[in-house]
Amino acid sequence: MSSLHFVVISRSSGFAHSFRLSDATRSLSLTTVHLVLNASNRSFVTTSRNQDQGPLFEKAKTMDPKLYTKSATPSSTKWPAPSPSASILVISPTNKVLLLKRVKTASSFASAHVFPGGNVDEFHDGVTAKDEHLDNIVYRNAAIRETFEETGILLSKSPVEVSDEVRDKGRKDVYNRHITFGDWVKNHGGVPDTDSLIPFTRWITPPPAKKRFTTQMYLYFLPVSSANSFSEKPSKIHTPTPEGEQEKEHTSAEWEYPLTWLSKAQSGEIMLYPPQFYLLNLLSPFLNNFNTDYTTQRKGVRQFLEKVPTSSGEYDSFDGKLKPKVSNTHMIGWKDKVISPSVMFTPGQLYRDETVLSLESPGPELGAQKGNTRGGDAERVVVVEFERKSGPRGIKIVDRGEVGRLWEEKERKGARI
Question: Rounded to whole angstroms, how far apart are CA atoms 123 and 176?
Answer without folding.
Answer: 11
